[in-house]
Amino acid sequence: MSTTEHGTPDREVVISRIIDAPRELVFEAFTDVRHLSRWWGPEGFTTTTRSFEFRVGGDWDFVMHGPDGTDYQEWITWTELAPPERIAMLHGETRDDPNAFTSILTFEPDGTATRIRMHTVFPTKEQRDEAVEKYHAIEGGEQTLGNLAAYVAEIVRKGAED
User: Fold this and answer.
1) Are the C-beta atoms of 41 and 60 separated by less than 8 Å?
2) Cβ atoms within 10 Å of 151's Cβ, excluding its own
């Protein structure tokens, strides 16, 4: 899903999903590397973490392994953390990536579930269009949030069995 806001509609992608789990658990799954490495990325992708430091200014340096065997160097730094409500981050291939983009994630209670919203702003319209058309950023983002939902559902299910 795409939307317009903040005066940058031609550079934005917004994806949201309701996850059937408490906000604190969904936030934890998004902020703890032992969870992140197990669900991050579109369907068929796996992740290898090189370093992870969850704090404002900290980095997550990792490689996403595509289902076709292609490796994608990835880097994220967190620019704002407000547990369990909000995360802002800069995401690119490396710390010096001129094409890095910003994402703001919000976690809102929705009854006993959590509504997660990922609002991404690219540096230019052309970079947004390339991400959407060439790299399928919308579908990939939806699949990533789907993986998060499935992972968290498994944690909830296992917790119910204990």
Assistant:
1) no
2) 19
Q: Are 150 and 19 a contacting pair, CB within 8 Å?
A: no
- Give yes or no for a contact between 31 and 24, defined as CB atoms under 8 angstroms apart: no
Query: What strands, in cross-sheet order, belong to the sheet with 101-110?
Result: 12-19, 113-121, 101-110, 86-92, 71-82, 59-65, 46-52
Strands 12-19 and 71-82: unpaired
CB 151 within 8 A of CB 39: yes
Q: How far apart are CA 143 and CA 5, in angstroms?
A: 23
How many helices (H) and strands (E) in the chain?
4, 7
Q: In the block, which residue shows the tokens 């290898």?
A: 48
Dihedral sign (CA 152, 154, 157, 158): negative
Mean pLDDT of 130-152: 94
Q: Which tokens hold the place of 84? A: 């369990």
Rounded to two decimals, the pTM is 0.89
Runs of H (alpha helix) within the chain: 23-31, 33-39, 125-133, 137-161
Cα within 13 Å of Cα(14), Cβ side = 12
pLDDT at 36 over 60: yes
